[in-house]
Amino acid sequence: MALLNIENLSVEYKSKRGITGKTETIHAVNNISLEINKGEILAVAGESGCGKSTLAKAIMLLENACGGKIIFEGKNVLKMNKAELKCFRQKVQMIFQNPYASLNPKMKIFDTLAEPLKINTDLTNEQIKKTVIDTACKAGLDEECLKLYPHEFSGGQRQRIAIARALILNPEFILADEPVSALDVSIQAQIINLLKQLKDDYNLTFLFISHDLSVIKYLSDRVAVMYLGEIVEIGTTDEIFFTPEHPYTKALLSSVPQITKTGDEKIILEGDLPSPADLPQGCKFHTRCPYCMPVCREKMPDETRITDTHYVKCFLAKSMI
Length: 321
Ligand code: SF4
Description:
Number of strands: 12
Largest sheet: 8 strands, mixed
Number of helices: 10
Bound molecules: iron/sulfur cluster
Distance between the termini: 23 Å
Strand content: 15-25%
Structural class: alpha/beta
CATH topology: Rossmann fold
CATH superfamily: P-loop containing nucleotide triphosphate hydrolases
CATH architecture: 3-Layer(aba) Sandwich
C-alpha cells in the first residue's frame, strides 16, 4: 500500500544569469510521479545536481512545488490546512547530509530533542525526559551526551543526534538526504546499520537519497534513478543492479567497479550534466548517450513497463510482459 504518492511534481527556480541579468528558469524537478509503499526503503540515485535533494525538500515543503500533487495517507499535502500540516510534519521527518549544520549549536542535545515534544505533544516534563532518554538510547547515545552541545561530538555522533531528533515524534516516514556521505567510511557502516535497525523498530518507511550505489544496494528495497529532474528508471534493487535497462543506469553502475563483473557492458559517460536551465529537447540524456538515435533528439520516450515493478524511459527498452 502506498504511504506517499507523488503525482506529476515539478519544482522550478528563477535565477538571474551572469552580468546580463537575464532571468532564466531552472527546471530542478520535472513532472515526477512516484509511489512509496509503507515499510519500504526507496532509494533515489543520480549525479549531484540531478534534483534528488530538491525532490526531498519539495516533499517536506521546504521548496515550493510549481505543479503536481504530494499525497500522504490519501491527502494532498499541498492543499492541507494548518492543523493537517502540523500532523503531517510530525509524521514526516528529514535527516540532512550535514549533521552539524542541521543542529542548533547553542542548544544542548537534551533541549534539541525535547523541543519538538514540547511544541507538538501534551507530555509532562517527566514524560518528555523519559522519551528523550529512550530515543537517544535507540540512536546509540548515552544519557551523558544529553548535557553536551553539538560541537562536543564527532561527525558520526552528531548524525546519531540528528537521527534521534528525526525519531523523537515517532514518525512514519523519513526522508534521508545523503545521511552518510559526510562521514568517514568506518562510521558510515555504523549509521547505515543503525538506520536499518530503526526501520524495523519503528516500522518506518524511507526515501533514501544517495549517490553511493553500494550503500543503496545494501539498504534499499527499490531504486529510482534520476537524471536532470526526471526518473528515468525505477525497479527493485535487484532489477536495477542486475538487469538495468536505461543507458544512464548502466553508466552509473559502470562507475562502481566492484558491482559490475568483468565482461559486463560498461558505459563511461563523457561531458557534464547539462544545465537544468537549458534542458535538451527529446530524451534529456541524448547529449551523453552512446546509443542516441535521431528520434531521441526529437521525442521524449514514454515509460516502458519491463516487469510489474520495473519501468524505464528509453526507446531501446523492450517490455517483457
Ligand atoms: Fe539513449 Fe535514446 Fe534511450 Fe535516451 S531514449 S537513453 S538517447 S537510446
